[in-house]
Amino acid sequence: MNSFEFSKIWHKILKDYKVHMDTKLAPTLTDAQLTVLELVQERGAAKPSDLAPHLATSPAAVTMLLDRMERGGLIIRDRDAADRRIVWVSITDLGRRETARGLKVRSDFFAEVLDHISAHNQQLLLYLMGKLVAPGNEAAPLELSR
């Protein structure tokens, strides 16, 4: 397979994923918001600056995203008691429910896509995709919560 064919297939998968997620998560959640909720839920709390690498966006865009999420009741932001310059993002009960819903939507998409290939080939695909991620290209780990 040449790079052109790979690019076509890759973009088709990404497009299908985006359409599925946008359709199934709307109107209360976006894929970027789901990513934030998933990261914050995993760690208990996170700083906005630690979220940016996982979203591949600017700090200003992260702030705007968090503003929308806070208005929607998905997260709360609190100042650090020891250093008021630090803001911690934590998840609300509504955010937890939306995270569970969003993860199911994502899981359903991949289950449907992967259902067309055997379990062995799914494992092989996962292995090969892991090879595509160059060392050092993974998103930076989040700082542990307070």
Q: Which strand order do you get reading across the main beta sheet?
A: 1-2
- From N to C, what is the helix and strand string? HHHHEEHH
Q: What is the overall pLDDT average?
A: 91
Radius of gyration over C-alpha positions, nearest whole angstrom? 17 Å
Cα separation of the termini: 48 Å
Domain module count: 1
How helix-rich are the residues, as a percent range? Answer: 55-70%
Low-confidence stretches: 140-146
The tally of strands reads 2
For the biggest sheet, the summary is: 2 strands, antiparallel
Please give the count of helices. 6
What's the CATH C level? Mainly Alpha
CATH superfamily: Winged helix-like DNA-binding domain superfamily/Winged helix DNA-binding domain
Strand content: 5-15%
> Helices and strands: which structural class?
mainly alpha
Large-scale geometry: globular
